[in-house]
Amino acid sequence: MKILLTNDDGVNARGISVLREIALQLSDNVWTCAPDSEQSAASRGVSLHNPVRLRKLDERIFSVTGTPTDSIIVALKALMPDSPPDLILSGVNRGQNLAEDVTFSGTVAGALQGMQMGVPSIALSLARGFQGAQSLPWETALAHGAATIKELLDRGWAAKVVPNVNFPDAAPDAVKGLQYTRQGHRDFQMTGVDRRNHPRGGDYFWLTYGAKKSNPPQGTDLRAIYDGYISVTPLHTDLTHEASLATFAT
Asked: Which domains does the chain possess?
């Protein structure tokens, strides 16, 4: 099995090295093509107005001066046009991609692009800030990653779907199991701005992003992570709200 890795934290991030260790438990034919710098919250951005450069860093390891979506496009069209991968893995993200997060996640976007180009793809993230860990427990993703991917491969999924995997920020032996979940919704506003004075005059803003817990129902990705489970949510790109469509049509 040929596996391609990408991420949005950058080619030198800890998470993609963990992902490579996971992938090597599944195959000895593992490739990496990832952004050369952090692209968190890049969503499905494509570099249409700037040239994209590809750089070889090591055997089967490449960086791209662009987004996760750019990385997948360049990998499939330039690196391996005649021998595409059998599986794309995006991550492991430094922080959760749950609920509304998935719409601006570069990690999820990399997997969505792979899916769009006909390759089965999985997004993987490691939550932080919920279980009281002082640092990210990368060992949890490493301990459970290969088994989670194997289970998904054994089960299979629809061609237009991306499994979105989130690992809880708990020790490996404290993970309570795996739950298949739906995308949740938070009951508070996560974003804000911090206005500051520029020393040369005028104001500037830092965009802020909260991470406190909401109170989600059972069966959601949020609840699973809060309760210490691995969450797997099948995502797709059809954002149509069918009930509203039916109402508009009457």
From this structure: 2-186+216-238 (3.40.1210.10)
Q: Tokens 């739950």 appear where?
A: 179
Listed residue (67, 62, 61) closest to 38, CA to CA? 67
Q: Which residues contact 58 (CB under 8 A, 6 or more apart)?
A: none
Return the residue matching tokens 């991306």: 162
CB atoms within 10 A of CB 86: 14
β-strands 87-94, 121-126 pairing = parallel
> Which mean pLDDT values do the consecutive 10-residue runs of the chain (250 residues) have?
98 98 98 95 89 97 98 98 97 95 95 98 95 86 98 97 97 97 78 85 79 83 97 96 93
- Burial-class residue 26 by CB neighbours within 10 Å (0-12, 13-18, 19+): middle
pTM here? 0.93
